[in-house]
Structure formats: structure tokens, C-alpha cells
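Project standup — Tuesday

K.O.: blocked on the structure for the chain from last sprint. Re-posting the sequence here as requested.
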Amino acid sequence: MTTFNHVAMLGAGAWGSALANVAARSGRKVDLWTHDPAVAAAITKRRESPRLPGVRLDERVRLIGSLIEAAEADAILIVVPAQAVRSVVAALPPLAGTPVVVCAKGIEQGTGKFMTELIAEIIPQARPAILSGPSFAADVARGMPTAVTLAAHDEPTASALAAALGSATFRPYHSTDVRGVEIGGAAKNVLAIAAGIVSGRRLGASAAAALTTRGFAELARFGRALGARPETLTGLSGLGDLILTCSSPQSRNFSLGVALGEGRGLDEAQRGGKLAEGVFTASALAAMAKARDIEMPIATAVAAVLAGRVAIDAAIEALLTRPFRAEDE
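H.V.: unblocked you, prediction finished:
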């Protein structure tokens, strides 16, 4: 089986720093790259990313300043926001068969492309893969038990990557359902904003449970239409991640939804420097659903609220007054 003893993390934010620690604890040689000089300076001085305060980077993690150096790794993990994946991947030198694992959850605005589609488009010689699942960076960085899904188009690559990153406290389950894993990660962020709005409006625990359940029905409907496997949608990267992000204030998307539900505007809700990927994915997800005639009323309502086309109370009323129907529709 192929082994990946040298990995490069592109992105030194909270998630990139956490995964760098994971790989180091698994015995890998780890290179960590950031485009931000201030972040690089902080890591050099304190061995700590300002995006993940209080968590010291493992001594085996080496900070690098060049993407040329990153290309020397056996596998590359892209750990930047979804809307920045294209620019980072495009800046990489040519690769020949290197696995490129995207650790961002989203759909590119404008093109409607999933993250592994960007890899295939920009570096056709690379082997695209995706890592996603119910995980908070702070938990992972501190070695708290976490399970995720790592998918590649071929079983040997997926299995070898999971083995390279896995440990007793970080358990990647491997899969070849790349699209299913990507759909779960992208859609759950949008639905988590809706769950946060329900919480911020204080609509109650019953409404929160109904929102999450019906949200999963939308995620599954979208996934089936795009060829995802049912077991992926009900697995860690689908239902598992949805449960986590729809119920915890640690979720940036949920917290943003809470702020909106409490009456704050989008600009105010986004203050604090923490990126909520669902803000960017919502419009792309709604557009893709509409183009394919896939019914996703919750995701569509979130996109409309974020775009300022519909007020929150009007969106809630529209959802509550939809015609009664069978649950499996």
C-alpha cells in the first residue's frame, strides 16, 4: 500500500493548524504554508497560529514559505476557505500523481463547481480527494476523539491517505464517494445558518429538531440527484456533520444564523473575523437546486435572506405555510 510520509498543509488557520498537529502526531513529516506574513511571524515566534490561540503546534511541524517546497510532499492538503481554493491550487507548480486533499466545505460561487472539480480542472495530473465530517478545529488540535470521512476516486488512495492521517483520536473513514462527501459538507453549512436563525428567534427545541430533520431531507434529495450514495449521506460527512453544526455555537455558520435570528444585519453578524462558509455556498447551492428542479425550500430561503431579498419573518412564514405533504416527498 502507498504510504504518505511527507504531507504539506496549505493554510495555517485554525483547521490547517489542527490538521498539521494531527499529521505530526501520526508520525508524518509536516510542512505548513500560509500566505499571511502576520500568521507566519506569529507561528515563528510562539509556535502558535493566531487563528487557533492556546494550541501549540507540534515541534515536528515545519513552517515553509514557498509552494514550490510544498510540491515536494507526498500528499498536499488544501486547508483554505472554499472560495480561495482555486487561487491557491493555481499557484502550485505542476504535480504528477500527487494526491491533493481539499479540506474546505463549499461550492465555488459563479461556477457552481465542487472543490475536487477545481483540482481536476487546474491540475489534471493530481489525484483529487476530499476530507470532511463532524469536526471542530479546537477539538481536533487538542487530541479530542473525532471521526471524519476521507474520499478519493480510487480505494487504494483513499485508504492510504486515511492511514497516513489516522490515529487513536483522529479516525478518518475512507470512501470513494467523493461527490457525496462534498455535498454533505457544502449543504450542511447552509442548513446550519437556518438552524441558527431558529435558535436566535427562540422558536424552541421542537422547531430546531424539525428544521434539522427537514434540512437533512433536502441534503439527501440533492445528494441523490447528483449521484451520492445513501450511506454517505447518512454517514459522518452528511448527517453526522449536519447534527454537529446545527446544534453548537462552536459552528461559525450556526452562530451567524443566531446573530441574524436575533435581528442583527449580515455585516454585523460577520464581524469578528470568523468565516462562515455557508454565506458563500448558499446562493450556489440554491442555484444548482433550481437548475435541476430539486426542491430545497430551507436552503433557498437561507439564500434569499442572505441576499436581502426576503426578511427572516417572511421566510419563516413561507416555510410554515407550505402545503402539507407526505414525509417522504
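K.O.: great, moving the ticket to review. Strands lie at 6-10, 29-33, 61-64, 75-78, 99-102, 127-132, 146-152, 170-175. The mean pLDDT is 94.
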